[in-house]
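Appendix C: a fully annotated inverse folding record. The material below is reproduced so that readers can follow the format used throughout the book. The structure is listed first as tokens, followed by the designed sequence.
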């Protein structure tokens, strides 16, 4: 059995120090992706840096039309937070629909977005709500944060501290989920923001993306039938054992229509 070191820093400063001192280390947030990868020997870090004891990375603060979610806030905590339910019910519902009960209680928003799984739910929410990722060294717009398959703008010695979500006028998230993992085969987040409608898709491509054609159609009238007949360029989509490119391509407009309808109900 391969051995590794384990570090449980009590402060963000100590975590950054440990990360910079060992370039081969891995950060442990919720562990819902990393621990299975370790078991399968798909990842072999020299040290695990566990962030669970860092209190400054937990909690939700709402006010001034903005919700700030600290990186180590679990999906269950986000889903249950009353301020999130009031200001951003779509975000609360999204968190409540992630995985199973264990995943929701252990998984964290920071760990999820840093991992950037192509079928994860949060990237669609961040893109649609025009969120800001606050790191230990800078502020990164969601559109600049998610780069490609499992790739983000995070530097090797940088950690996610929080995510800032501007409240939308109305929003909704709908996903066609895998029945076992509950990951999105296709997920669509629709938000009517102060800068106009935004429509984002996860689960279909290598990284979450916006559908500008749908946004333009909704800008002319936020209605259930706004995107009917609209041709959108989705680019190359995932094709795997769960769903083909064609299947996902046909799912997107229907899931988007359902998300628009749900947004109209808020």
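Designed amino acids, in order:
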């Amino acid at each position: 059995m391969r051995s590794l070191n384990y570090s449980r820093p009590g402060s963000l400063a100590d975590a950054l120090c440990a990360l910079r001192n060992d370039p081969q280390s891995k950060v442990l947030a919720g562990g819902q992706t990393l621990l299975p990868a370790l078991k399968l020997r798909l990842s072999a870090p020299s040290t695990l840096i566990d962030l669970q004891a860092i209190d400054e990375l937990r909690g939700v603060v709402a006010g001034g039309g903005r919700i700030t979610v600290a990186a180590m806030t679990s999906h269950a905590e986000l889903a249950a937070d009353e301020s999130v339910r009031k200001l951003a019910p779509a975000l609360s519902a999204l968190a409540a629909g992630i995985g199973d009960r264990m995943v929701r209680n252990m998984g964290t928003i920071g760990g999820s977005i840093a991992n950037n799984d192509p079928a994860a739910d949060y990237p669609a929410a961040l893109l649609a709500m025009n969120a800001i990722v606050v790191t230990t060294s800078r502020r990164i717009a969601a559109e600049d944060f998610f780069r490609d398959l499992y790739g983000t703008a995070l530097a090797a010695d940088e950690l996610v501290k929080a995510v800032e979500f501007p409240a939308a006028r109305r929003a909704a998230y709908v996903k066609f989920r895998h029945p076992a993992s509950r990951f999105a085969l296709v997920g669509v987040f629709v938000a009517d923001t102060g800068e106009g409608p935004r429509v984002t898709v996860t689960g279909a491509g290598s990284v979450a993306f916006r559908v500008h054609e749908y946004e333009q159609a909704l800008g002319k009238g936020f209605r259930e039938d706004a995107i009917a007949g609209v041709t959108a360029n989705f680019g190359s989509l995932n094709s795997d054992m769960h769903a083909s490119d064609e299947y996902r391509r046909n799912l997107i407009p229907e899931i988007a229509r359902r998300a628009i309808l749900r947004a109209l109900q808020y």
